[in-house]
Fold this protein.
Amino acid sequence: MQELPEKQVADSVVAESDKLRRPTNAKTMIPTPLPAKFRAIPQQSSTHSGTQQADIEQIVLSLAILAEADDPMIVNHLKRIQLYTRVLMQQLQDHPDYRMVLTEEYKPVIAQAVLLHDIGKMHLPAELKSKSGSLSSGEFQLMSEHTQFGKKALMQIEKLSGYSSDLIFFTKQIVYSHHERWDGSGYPLGLKQDQIPVPARIMALADVYDGLISPRSYKSALSHREAAEIILSDNASLFDPVVLRAFSETEYHFEQIAKEYPTQ
């Protein structure tokens, strides 16, 4: 496996990524490839006492709820997303492509980070977040920018505090890249395959599954079996095949989590 680079190198890639955009015309604009730098792991981990850790968890949950405060079921959504991610991390922790990130030290941090995946939505107009029906092309473009809004906010936190924690590090990866797709068809950068950070690859599947089983103003909720069949029919298009296999081996747990924390 290729040696992972230093944390500061990965951070610089994230900082510079605002300059990159998905091409609107492949002949005139070629996306700059982001290699393994973008999926690096921190060199050192910060430690906290039990009390400090509990305080951090409460703050993270509060911020995550604020991002979509208009959704009356947001707390259950966040619990489901976090538990789906934990199930997948447990299944993937020994895989050679994942074990350097999914350590016993980092898994709890990533589980916190996923709660903030949509924190950038705080910047969006309430009427856009609550709109029923399909979005126009302009509205979709604005909605997709929540990944950039969230990442910029986290970078400002680092800048003002002069301190970077593992939580912020992994949250930046998830916030900015959980809508990237394995075949490069996602946003905001059109990353593909192992250019996508490991936590974001896991979060992508968890987020899609939860979206399928959740009712929306413009659609009905699907059953677990319907959602699972849609996901498992993916042919290395949306998801990392390794993550897809992990889901196929743990989908029973997804169904149980959805029952324990219902969508309505």
Observations:
- Residues 50-260 form a domain with the Hypothetical protein af1432 fold (CATH 1.10.3210.10).
- The chain has one domain: 50-260.
- The CA atoms of residues 215 and 221 lie 4 Å apart.
